[in-house]
Design goal:
Length: 168
């Protein structure tokens, strides 16, 4: 009789554990989706003179309880942290991440009068002329879009409400 009670308890605990695992997966997926949606909009609508080639990827599981979101493209850092000393707005994590506005990449952003580049005009790059190498544009840079920063902030702001919704 006593063994049946223990077996029943073990079965119930296994069901609870399985339910918690699926709830945890749902919880992390919802948080990641919230971050991806926020980052995608911020990257897509960013002021950026040049080719905004950023792709925000679907969530990537790196273990049973860890999920990451990532963005790729040549312009990710320039859009996230901003470029050029013309803009005074600073990314909150720029100093910590070593992305000193105007001093990374080819350091052209340190020129307060702007710089020229080959490529596409983007948001407000000023067309100068066409050469055999392509179109030349002039820019003073762009403000930081803070796309991934805003995504992480949005995730943090919704952790409790999503946890209450899913783990009720």
């Amino acid at each position: 009789m006593e063994i049946k009670g223990i077996e029943s308890l073990i079965n119930r605990l296994e069901k609870v554990g399985s339910s918690l695992d699926s709830q945890n997966t749902l919880f992390l997926n919802k948080l990641a989706t919230l971050g991806i949606d926020t980052a995608s909009v911020a990257f897509k609508t960013a002021i950026y003179d040049g080719d905004n080639d950023v792709i925000v990827h679907t969530p990537e599981w790196v273990g049973s309880d860890k999920i990451i979101i990532r963005a790729t493209g040549k312009s990710v850092t320039f859009i996230e942290f901003g470029t050029g000393v013309h803009y005074f707005v600073q990314h909150p994590l720029a100093l910590e991440m070593g992305a000193y506005r105007g001093l990374y990449g080819k350091q052209k952003g340190s020129n307060p009068n702007g710089w020229s580049y080959y490529g596409v005009g983007g948001t407000n790059g000023k067309f100068i002329r066409t050469t055999t190498k392509g179109n030349i544009y002039r820019t003073k840079g762009n403000p930081p879009a803070r796309a991934m920063y805003l995504a992480s902030k949005e995730i943090r702001n919704n952790i409790v409400s999503l946890a209450k919704e899913i783990f009720k």
